[in-house]
Amino acid sequence: MKKTFFIAITMMVSFSMLTIAANDKKKKIATPAAAPERTVLANSNDTLSYAAGMSQTNGLIPYLTSQLKVDTAYMADFIAGFKEAMNKTEDPSYNAHAAGIEIAKMLKERLFPGIENELKGSPESLVREKFVEGFVAALKKDTSIYNQQTSASYFEARMKANHEAKQERLYGANREAGKKFLAENAKKEGVVTTPSGLQYKILTKGTGPIPTASQEVKVKYEGKLLDGTVFDSSYKRSDPITKFRCNQVIKGWTEALTMMPVGSTWELYIPYELAYGDADQGKIKPYSMLIFKVELIGIEGLEAEKPAEPVKAAPAKAAPKKVAKKK
Predict the structure, then answer these.
(1) For residue 14, what are the contacts with CB-CB under 8 A and spacing of at least 6?
(2) Residue 58, domain member (yes or no)
(3) At what angle do helices 148-185 and 112-119 cross, to 10 degrees?
(4) Is residue 262 situated within a structural domain?
(5) Which of 42, 71, 235, 256 is the most exposed place for a label (fewest CB within 10 A)?
(6) Within this chain, do residues 188 and 284 fall inside the same structural domain, yes or no?
(7) Does residue 22 carry a pLDDT above 60?
(8) CATH number at residue 217
C-alpha cells in the first residue's frame, strides 16, 4: 500500500531542525558538488529499509516548498539538518534548542501576526523586539518589570481599551444616531419605553397566552437598520414562520416576547445594548440600533383549550309493568 507523507510530517515536526537552514540563512552559500555516496544494500533488510525511506518522501518536496517555504536551491542544507536531527534525537540539549526554534516559528507565523491584526487601526501597536524580550523574561522567571499575572492583566486591559477606541472611531456615529432616534421616538404616541431602554408599539393587540423565556415560540418578523435597510425578513422565505426559544435571541427580543400575548404584532425599537452591542454582524455594524416588526403566531406545544363536551345524561329506565295477577 502506498503511504502518504503524513508519517514523514510527524517526524519532521518532532525534529524541527529540518527547516532551520532554509528559514534562517539569508545568503546562498555556493557548495562544490560532491560525488554521490555509494549505497550498498547487503541483504533484504537493507533493501526493505531503503525502499521504506524513499517511499516516505511522497509529497515531501511540495510540502517543503508550499508549507515550510523551503527554497529547493538549499536542499543540501535541508539534508544536513535532517541528518543532524536524526542522529541527535536523544540529546536533551539539542532537543531543547530545536524546540526553541519551533516555538519561535509558531510565534512569528501565527501568534504575533494574530495580535497585530487585532490591533490594526487602534492607537497602539506591537514592537517585535519588546515582545521577544517579554517572552524570554517570563521563561527566565525575570519579574523585575512584571510577573505572569500582572503582565496578563495589563495586556488584557490594553487590548480591551484599544478595541474600544477602534470601535469608537469606526462606529461611534452609529451609537449616537441610535440614541437620538430613541429619544425622539419615545415622545411619539403609542410608543412604550421599558426600564431597560427597549421601546415598542402595539400594532395588533393579541389575546392569547404570554410565553415564558424558556418556551419555544412561532413568529414572523422583519428587521431593519436605522436607515431603513432590511437585513433579515422571514416574510421573504418559503415558510415565513420561524421557531426558537425566547431566551435564545438578543435581549431586546427576549424582553418583548415575554410581554406579548399570542396574536400580537409589535414594532420593536431595540438599542444596541439589547441587540449585538459592539460586535460586527456583517450587515449589522457595531453599536447599531435595530427596528423589528414581530408577529407572535403561537407557542410551540401549547394548544388552545377546547371547551369541555357536555356530559350526556343516562337514558331514563322505563318503569316495570305491573302484571295483573289472576284471581
Answers:
(1) 89
(2) yes
(3) 30
(4) yes
(5) 42
(6) yes
(7) no
(8) 3.10.50.40
Q: What pTM does this model have? A: 0.61
Which residues form the domain of 83? Answer: 6-27+41-102
Q: Cβ distance 228 to 288 under 8 Å?
A: no
Q: Give the model confidence (pLDDT) of 58-79 as tens digits.
A: 999 999 999 888 999 999 999 9
Cα dihedral sign, 177-182-184-188: positive
Count of domains forming the chain:
2
Residue 92 DSSP SS3 = helix
Domain match, 279 and 189 both: yes
Domain termination residue (choose one: 102, 120, 153): 102
- Provide DSSP, 143-154: -SS--HHHHHHH
Confirm if 222 and 231 have CB atoms less than 8 A apart: no
pLDDT for the residue 293: 97
| Residue 198 · residue 273 · CB < 8 Å | no
Cβ(302)–Cβ(212) under 8 Å? no
Task: Give yes or no: residues 94 and 188 share one domain.
Answer: no
227: helix, strand or coil: coil
Is the pLDDT reported for residue 314 higher than 60?
A: no
CA atoms within 13 A on the CB side of 13: 7
